[in-house]
Design brief:
Distance between the termini: 57 Å
Oligomer: single chain
Order of helices and strands: HHHHHHHHHHHHHH
Helix content: 40-55%
Number of helices: 14
Number of strands: 0
């Protein structure tokens, strides 16, 4: 018991008797959620044990019985801890706005597991893309959002790879493209031909990543101001 209090993984080496002891298992999962997998299977149906485990690591939801994967409190605690735990719940909760919103706020990539209806929910998509690294989750959103200027603009400011997903009209929007290349110079590759010929855009891209000069138009590739920048960044 002392070892489990200090490290839940100690349950690995415990006897079957200890793995079936509720107090010991509760202590173990409060330290390490993976202990639920090692415990006697009866605890997969124990609400308090599962709730404690998902608060430690939401992914432990995958070990719970189906009834507990349908428990709103357990599911909410799981996705608040680990948004990707959304994949382990029921279709009902994958279509629950509160649950999905909490999941994508914790991890934008949880959007992948949301219902199609909620992949079309603007509040949820905004929450997903409006965080560092979240913009690329746009690939899982309803395609209408690829042409949503506000959402794409937010996404390119926080994440690389977003301009590639954007509608062609936004690849020709200077404010959007400029924000994208300032964050990720390589995004110049996906800008419109017109903007790859724009000095301000190309200069910003090369400032962020000197290798992006390869995507500039031929005239700017030999512009002394650009080439000097590329050789020093």
């Amino acid at each position: 018991m002392i070892e489990v209090k200090e490290d839940g993984e100690a349950l690995k080496d415990a006897s079957d008797e200890f793995k079936a002891d509720r107090e010991i298992v509760l202590t173990a999962v409060s330290q390490w959620a993976g202990a639920l997998f090692l415990a006697n299977e009866k605890f997969f149906a124990d609400r308090e044990v599962v709730l404690t485990a998902v608060k430690t690591n939401g992914d432990a939801l995958k070990f719970a019985i189906d009834d507990l994967k349908s428990d709103s409190e357990i599911v909410l605690e799981a996705v608040k801890n680990n948004g990707l735990a959304l994949q382990h719940t029921t279709e009902k909760f994958k279509n629950n706005q509160q649950i999905v919103l909490a999941a994508v706020q914790q991890n934008a990539w949880a959007l992948r597991f949301a219902s199609d209806d909620l992949k079309g929910n603007r509040e949820i998509i905004t929450a997903a893309v409006d965080q560092p690294g979240g913009g690329r989750a746009l690939k899982y959103a309803d395609k209408k959002f690829r042409a949503d200027r506000a959402i794409v603009l937010s996404g390119v400011k926080y994440s690389d790879g977003v301009l590639e997903l954007a509608d062609e009209s936004l690849k020709n929007d200077k404010e959007v493209v400029l924000a994208a290349v300032k964050n990720d110079g390589w995004a110049l590759k996906y800008a419109s031909k017109k903007l790859r010929s724009d000095f301000e855009v190309v200069f910003a891209a090369v400032t962020a990543n000197h290798w992006s000069i390869k995507f500039a138009n031929e005239k700017l590739k030999i512009d002394s101001r650009i080439t000097a920048l590329a050789s020093t960044t």
